[in-house]
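During the first year of the project, the team set up a workflow for recording each protein of interest as an amino acid sequence followed immediately by a discrete structure-token representation. This format lets reviewers and collaborators read both layers of information side by side without switching files. As required by the reporting guidelines, we include two representative entries from the current panel. The first entry is reproduced here exactly as it appears in our internal archive.
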Amino acid sequence: LAEPGCAFADPAAIGPGEWGDVAASEGGFVAAVLHADEAGETLITFRLDPAGGSAPLTERRLDHPVPPARRGAGPIVDAARVAWVDAERGLHVAPLQGGDPAPVGQPASLRFTPALVSGGGARAIAWTDDSGTPMRVRARRLGADGRPTGAAADLTPSGGGGAAPVAHGEGLVFLDPRAAMSVAHRASVGPQGFGEAAVARPVGLVTAPPRIAAIGDPPGLLAFTAVGAAATTAVGLVPLEGATPAQPIVRGTGYGTLHVDADGRLLVADAPLDRPPESPRELHVHAVGADGALGEATVIRGPDGHARRGRIASSGELVAVLFEAAGRVYVSL
């Protein structure tokens, strides 16, 4: 496993897959990988040890598989559970090591990864409902057993929209994506439910669909996919309070969707290697200072020289980056 600022080991293949996620767990990391084939979709969870080995925990054949062309986001995992959206736009959550999945709610978007909040005493799951205009962010609390409890809450601000929720401390951050100036919102999560969403700050012109990641302890910073020069896709970084202009993480040199993820003060972002929307990507990993200063990028590529859809997790000085390349999911430790 690599320390922040150090080179990562050569990527190790976990197995076939198009989407995945990684999270810190006791003694190492856990991962979830989603793979589509002619017969449907399979969701496999793994334990990753500090020496770089992987061992399967559970394997689930999804009852309602999503055709690859329709799926625009993958599963989400934390130290105890995994969640995913199926073809009927139903959101499900299940224990990492066996146990039946529990339905959370629907409709859930296939374009946005759900969010799991597990900081402190807060446990919740949030998702994007894009069945109408504007889109909305909905959430449910999770009990001590990890199963949904209580009714779903609509966190969308009055008169606005909501999309792309991500966990941040003991709460959530999400966007109200607008045609011109999009706005970031916060919502707290507590034992009794959810606080009213409050404006964090304007962030500017974001891509459709937007990708975001919250960095550091609240108030923290926000990485987001922005519309760059000549309508290219860029990744920007702003403090989650005030009105400081965005600084670039990935400059707008290509088109198409870029992915960004963060854990603690580490972030990973797709960076295009050419201009066309489907051109190959590589991953840029940065440490981010409390003042928003970016450390030098560490570049990660798979065996074929490409990498995309990066996800990152840190545990003390240990770091894991999971990504997809050529139909397989890899992890760099």
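The second entry, processed by the same pipeline in the following quarter, appears below.
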Amino acid sequence: VVNKIWSSKKMFFSLIIVGICAIIFQNVYPSVIFSRYETIFLIFVSMIFFAKYNRINKINKKYKYAVIATFALCLVFILMNTTGRRDVIKLIIAFSLIWSIYEKPFKVSSIFFGGIFIFIMVMGLAFYRTTFSFEELSKAMQTVIGNKELLLLSISSLMDFMPGHNNYEYIVNNTNTFDEYLWGSSLLKIILIFVPRFIWSQKPFGVQELIVEHHRNAFVGGSSQTTTIIGEFHWNFGMLGVVIFMYFFGYICKKIDINNKIYPNNHWRIILNIVFISWFIEMFRGGLSTILIVNSLQMLFPIILVWLIYKIVFINNSIRRRIFS
């Protein structure tokens, strides 16, 4: 247990080093790799482990309060610096999962009221980024609350429910022959990311860009739109592809859940599991290739740096003596 406590501390301090570098050199490194929001997310996850391995319990509540305070500060920081719904949702998912694994499962009432709170928060973000004005946001919320039809329309449009269904409906109705399927071409973006489009102008696009070219959505515009994950699988491989890939998706979720219960003290495994689970909310929008590329750069790259610092500095005794002597 002592070794686990110390290794958790060293992992935490390793991540702090990476976080400081990311914030200082935000304008030097590509922002997609060192995103402050993702860095704060990683620091928060490690902070929870740091507190947990120092014995959070009813007798010593200061660590529990430190975790809750850290979560609240990170949430406020993200809300003040981003309009991305995914940043907020990732942080909440991470906190909820780790709290359920190491502290206690949430009650049904907590999940219900917490879900309502998250929904209102995310909807507020969606309204805000249409005008980027708190005054306009306040007016829009007052107008929507007083009009039930407008409220339902706003929820369905801004939360991607109806736009996603509209695009999915188009995909299902227009992929009936062999030539109309993509046959995995939209997923090749993961492999072909380093091939510039000026070299290969016919390089495959992701489904979020393709759907805009092929279909005019009845609810939203823009250069990319959700197809839903089922729509993406259907467009690539048909109904059989939907069944196979969703089965595989469920199998991965099951393995992660089992591993979290079997190896609760393997903090590296838990962090990777929590990070991957936090991507799910985006995956259900479709565009898997883009999601995997961006999230891998934003999350896995900093984690690899943390792991390298942890291994080089804190595991290698000779290097550690030279640095701290």
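For the second entry, the following points were noted during internal review. Residues 1-6 have pLDDT under 50 and may be disordered. DSSP finds 14 helices and no strands in the chain. Both points are flagged for discussion at the upcoming steering committee meeting.
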